[in-house]
């Protein structure tokens, strides 16, 4: 390893402590080449290049073994919370029905995260298995996340990882909506919440010949997947849409990222006035405003543009996301 490091740095001191090797270095290669070298090194190690008391230090630490038991524990806990919440969707407590809803929502959320996971592994990026987040929300979870470690190799890698989750999530959501709308269902209680349906949901309903007034909770799980896809594909900060837009147009994506929250807030205010319902888009506009303040990390190779195929896939993904949008997702009265 030292021979490889000395191709890019002059090493004048080495320290080892608690699994970390610290190289005191002086750069002797082009900064762009050093950046690419650190990117390659980060595929196998935790790498940090920083100044320490005025000296430039390259720290290399062996990757720590992932604690999979945490992922499993959170998965089990999230199945429990989504089952508990889903059991209330039938007008009476239905534990078996709640478990069916849990399987549907976990499939939708899991498909999204595994799309990211496999794309990251294809690019040899260090990434974790999904961490599901149990929480007593309207669906019993706050979703799932995966953790990426190390730099992003290129704009193409950034694009592939960013777009793969939403595309996998949309495919899973369409399947779940189709299954849910095909299950006969009769709600036995008093409706407390109505949902607006996006064009993609309506298209699936038309395709399966759905004509009922109440949809099975499994269909609601698919609706949640479409709704989350739209939120994630907003081209803001480090949301999935932000990754995709950054890969497609480079640093110009920052201007789009700053504009989108303002558009959401303005639209939310207009929707409140038009429909007489409190709009979630004002809140989401404020949230994405904070996301837009964070600069997107630069890929190691930020110069090689995407190929035509990726530009087409990116445009297609944004169109699909737009078809997941509904002006009033939730309402206390019928539409």
Radius of gyration: 23 Å
Neighbour order of strands in the largest sheet = 1-2-4-3
Please write the string of helix (H) and strand (E) elements: HEEHEEHHEEEEHEHHHHHHE
What's the domain count? Answer: 2
In terms of per-residue confidence, which ranges show pLDDT below 50 for 5 or more consecutive residues? Answer: none
* SSE class: alpha+beta
Number of strands: 10
Number of helices: 11
Mean pLDDT: 90
Distance between the termini: 65 Å
Explained architecture:
- With 335 residues, this protein is an alpha+beta fold.
- The protein has two domains: 2-62, Hypothetical Protein Ta0175, Chain: A, domain 2; 70-331, no CATH class.
- Helices cover 53% and strands 15% of the residues.
- The chain is built from eleven helices and ten strands.
- It has helices at residues 2-5, 31-41, 68-86, 95-122, 155-181, 199-208, 217-232, 240-249, 253-275, 280-292, 308-322; strands at residues 9-17, 20-27, 45-52, 55-62, 126-127, 131-134, 141-145, 148-149, 194-195, 330-331.
- The strands form four sheets. Strands 1-2-4-3 form a four-stranded antiparallel β-sheet, with helices on one face. A two-stranded antiparallel ribbon has the order 5-8. The protein has a two-stranded antiparallel ribbon with strand order 6-7.
- β1 (9-17) and β2 (20-27) form a beta hairpin.
- α5 (155-181) packs across α6 (199-208) and α5 (155-181) runs antiparallel to α7 (217-232).
- The longest helix has 28 residues, at 95-122.
- It starts with a helix and ends with a strand.
- The mean pLDDT is 90.
